[in-house]
Amino acid sequence: MSFSPVVTVVIPVLNGADTLGDLLASLKHQAGLPGVMEILVVDNGSTDDTVKLAESQGVTVLRQPIRGPSAARNLGLSHASSEVVVFTDSDTIPTRRWLSSLCSVFAEPAVVLATGPIHAWQPKTAAERFADARGAYSPELTHAHPLHPFAVGMNVAVRREAARAVCGWDETMSSGEDVDFSTRLCKQFEVPIRFVPQAILFHHHRTTDEALWHQAYWHGAGYAQFQHRHPQLAPWTPLDAFSVFFSLTTLSLASPLVALGRRFCPWIHPQRWEFEDYYRGWTKHFWRGFFDQRRKDHNS
């Protein structure tokens, strides 16, 4: 390359033509960077116009035939030209100073891993409203988690050599790979995750029930994989199993009560009932994925 980029942005993508254009447009209008950026779109086998769209925007397109976001991110990491590498997803929209805010903290030599806030992008469907209300990317569930803090994979900045030193992202994980990646980095370099409040990113949540339930199952399986790899951080005891069984049973028995509440408690806002319905569905699919994965790990 004829220039030395100050940051490399890696975007793993599979059939992301509907949203990738907005992300690339937002990246081209980033403000405050002290130099140029390198954008690497890593296609993971798309069958839509993803590659055509990316190439039309003049960004570098890499092709990763091995499926999974970890494999795609690792290919981008291996091609990154800058010292700082930022990972995001094709369904995100960064604010104008997202990159400059993330990159600025790396002026401190001790910073290895950084992240910022993630907010929902204009939720319209019931599935999107639930994902937003659930607060999946809230601080207490991500970088400030009491047991295993992590930087969400769509809003991660890392020193390139540090990421390579821990062998990048675990390609055997179907989900939860960002928790594992953060855990290994922080352990090896003995540093915390730097949270950058100004590095704000918006995310398109899943729009349909089917996509939401698939995500819940996928997250549950990822949590089981993380537990399998890091039992000291996420121990699983008989009491945990009983608590989950009790919660699922309670949620199942509550279904007719919620139906009666909808009919006879008109003073409760409809979105509250909507949330309760989706919460039961999310919980059921999450733990189904969790236990299916635990059985696979146990039998392997």
Task: Give descriptors for this structure.
single chain, 300 residues, alpha/beta, Spore Coat Polysaccharide Biosynthesis Protein SpsA, Chain A, seven-stranded mixed beta sheet, three-stranded mixed beta sheet, 13% strand, globular
Structure report:
- This protein has helices at 17-28, 50-56, 69-79, 98-104, 126-134, 160-165, 177-189, 209-229, 238-264, 270-299; strands spanning 7-13, 37-43, 60-63, 84-87, 92-94, 113-115, 118-120, 156-159, 194-195, 201-203.
- The chain has 300 residues and is of the alpha/beta class.
- It folds into two domains: 7-207, Spore Coat Polysaccharide Biosynthesis Protein SpsA, Chain A; 212-299.
- Strands 3-2-1-4-8-6-9 form a seven-stranded mixed β-sheet, sandwiched between helices. The protein has a three-stranded mixed β-sheet with strand order 5-10-7.
- Helix 1 (17-28) runs parallel beside helix 2 (50-56), helix 5 (126-134) packs across helix 10 (270-299) and helix 9 (238-264) runs antiparallel to helix 10.
- It is globular.
- 39% of the residues are buried.
- The mean pLDDT is 93.
How would you sum up this structure in a few lines?
The mean pLDDT is 93. Helices cover 48% and strands 13% of the residues.
User: Helix share of residues?
Assistant: 40-55%
Beginning-to-end CA distance, first to last residue: 45 Å
Largest sheet: 7 strands, mixed
In CATH terms, the superfamily of the largest domain is Spore Coat Polysaccharide Biosynthesis Protein SpsA, Chain A
* CATH level-1 class of the largest domain: Alpha Beta
- Can you count the beta strands? 10
Number of domains: 2
Q: Structural class per helix/strand content?
A: alpha/beta
Proportion of residues in β-strands = 5-15%
